[in-house]
Amino acid sequence: MVPFAGFYMPVTYRGITEEHRKVRSSVGLFDLSHMGEFRVAGSGALDFLQKVTTNDVGKLAVWDVQYSLLCYPEGGIVDDLLVYRLPESFLLVVNAANIQKDFDWLASHKPSGVTLTDESDDFALLAIQGTKAEAIMARLTGFDLPTLGYYKAAKAKVCGEEILFSRTGYTGEDGFELYVAPERAENFWHQIMETGEEFDIEPIGLGARDTLRLEMKYMLYGNDIDQTTNPIEAGLGWVVKLSKPGFIGRPPIEKMKTEGPKRKLAAFEMLEKSIPRKGCTIFSGGEKLGEVTSGTYSPSLEKGIGLGYMPTSFSTTGTKLEIDIRGKRAPAAVVAAPFYKNGTRR
Predict the structure, then answer these.
(1) Dihedral angle at the C-alpha atoms of 227, 233, 234, 236, nearest 10 degrees?
(2) Can you give the pLDDT of all 346 residues of the chain as single tens digits?
């Protein structure tokens, strides 16, 4: 257990590798209650969110969910987040360490006609993730799950109580995220674990959550993206919609997309038994290129993998690299992401 964003969080229960493989092969249960939730409502809510996020909120139908970014005027990233379009409001789900920063940023741009409420303490968040996630969820709810597409939400009875849930997750596998009242979270946890027993469910900690997301090249704020990174160089241009009206950060993002980034976040794998970690220096032919932003041992590929910003000319697949690991330079090569190609929700 470790302290994080005001919570004590489980890094691992049985072991990171074992928990990681459990999600890939079967199913696991995560406690993500540390995440932040903001409610945005009012007649100007849509226009407000169009201004402060990079993706096109106007394309969301009710019950749609969208991955997006908040950006500074200079093009750097405030945070990455999920936007839920609900019948009478929007729900934003933000990273735990950024709750206050994000809320203050949004509040500083909020116009009249919009209400912004921090409801983080009103939600516990549980995630069922894995190839057997739907089978377990089907036992917990009467909702017609096959009709619920990826990045779609619903409100229905789960474990006998009406809650908001969505077909979302950060593992690369099928799964659901359940928003429940904090005082009911323990009861939900036990019901899910009991129901999932026949599917070999296990609790999953933060360690495996990190290795699972990295295998899919999903961003971790503070590592792979932050206020110094532009969405284009981070490979997040797909959540920047330049076709919509102006939004905060648009000019520098559009400029970088037009001119091309000088550096890119590239994926690499180790060519021998070694594990890269955040902060390791990346070289090629003796030239220093940058530093590892995220690195780990991949339980699925059984080798070291990582991400790092490097000059665009070095970011092409096949480029040979050396990663300085505790004073020794270990060989690596740039590869196409995601590292893990067989996720059910690639």
Answers:
(1) 110
(2) 999 989 999 999 999 999 999 999 999 999 999 999 999 999 999 999 999 999 999 999 999 999 999 999 999 999 999 999 999 999 999 999 999 999 999 999 999 999 999 999 999 999 999 999 999 999 999 999 999 999 999 999 999 999 999 999 999 999 999 999 999 999 999 999 999 999 999 999 999 999 999 999 999 999 999 999 999 999 999 999 999 989 999 999 999 999 999 999 999 999 999 999 999 999 999 899 999 999 999 999 999 999 999 999 999 999 999 999 999 999 999 999 999 999 988 6
Q: Is residue 257 part of a domain?
A: no
Does residue 48 sit in the same domain as residue 138? yes
pTM surpassing 0.90? yes
Six-digit token string for 151: 């990045």
Q: Do 182 and 269 fall within a single domain?
A: no
Same domain, residue pair 282 and 181: no
Give the separation between CA 188 and CA 78, rounded to whole angstroms.
33
Residue 274 lies in a domain: yes
The reply to whether 252 falls in a domain is no
Q: Are 324 and 283 in contact (CB under 8 A)?
A: yes
**How far, in Å, are 20, 58, 172, 198, 295 from residue 14 at the CA level?**
10, 43, 21, 19, 21
CA distance 240 to 225: 15
Number of domains in the chain: 2
Question: Are 162 and 156 spatial neighbours (Cβ–Cβ below 8 Å)?
Answer: yes
Same domain, 97 and 206: yes
| Domain limits for position 156 | 2-211
